[in-house]
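Much of what follows relies on a compact textual record of a protein's fold. A complete example follows; check for yourself that the lines match position by position.
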Amino acid sequence: MKRRVVITGMGAISPLGYNVNDLWEGLLAGKSGGGPITRFDTTDYATKIAAEIKNYDPTDHFERKEARRLDLSQQFALIAAKEAIDDSGFVENGFDPDLAGTIIGSGVCGIDSLTKQHQVLMEKGVNRVSPFLVPLIISDMAAGLVSIRYDLRGPNYSTVSACASGAHGMGDALRIIQKGEADIMVTGGTEAAIVPLAIAGFCAAKAMTTRNEEPEKASRPFDKERDGFLMGEGAAIAIFEELEHARKRGAKIYAEVSGFGMSGDAYHITAPEPDGRGAAYAMRMALEDAGVEPDKVDYINAHGTATGRGDVAETIAAKKIFGDHANKLVMNSTKSSIGHLLGAAGSIELLVTALSIRDSKIHPTINYTVPDPECDLNYSPNKVTDKEIGAAVSNSFGFGGHNASILLKRYEE
């Protein structure tokens, strides 16, 4: 019999603020983190907007010397991990380091440091490149840094599957605890890709919104006038814990992590499979893994990027799995408010799903003004939906056809 797993702590840094409370209150209030890009000159860019973390100063969180040795994505991960670990309290309560691990996903990890150090190489020469370059850019280092800081000696690695990275890492964390290989996993995702090269690449791919005059209204999932995603940044970390371990120390429990499903589209490097086959299979596997019937799911936190094909494919996939019940559940997009956090998207959206279960509230999909006949489900448009949630699914899909779905349930003894 699989061991039960629950969420006992959360941490986040996002375009809506520096902690989980700021994130959740901002989402419920229908706020947008969108705005003009401030970090570089966007004159020649088709997209000039993003959802940046506002007024971020590394020295508010790290000593100046330490900050120079950390990529921005690593800084975000450490900030979110600290909040999650403090929230959970497992360190102060005592734990077995060999049975505590960390998995933190990222899509493009140290791209900020990589591009900056490449510029140093070109302009100042080989001897001026930072000796910390390799730790600054390798994908596993966010997990490594959290492991070192908190003496987590169990499973320790990173997942990389584009925009499904964080969700895949959390799914792995679930299975590791279920199998008895750890009692606690610090898991999530981090991303800091609002840099010239990444923005230029997504502009070239014509994947991002160009609604530059209205950055707060630019991210429009499921709306007929959507024109691409809004880049975001940040990190989200959850503490997954074996239920009896959590009970013994009297931990608070946000939700139970009950099912995980994943699949591949085997279709295209960037476009989703049009009929949502892969997305549907991932959801089906999550339901079967959790032993939950489709009509018991009340809410889907959608991948919902505001791309033309993606939103339609996800809507079709939901109808495939849930049938007539799809018209009774609610499906929203957190990306409407905070943009697309790429490799961190799945992790921050799982936290939001757990908070929705806890508070019986589904935040609005903002900027939904023109219904799309091909996207015809209840997306909680522009206002909070009050709804008791027994079970919910969080979806994450990535370039390359990577699909991951995680099912959470309201915790019951």
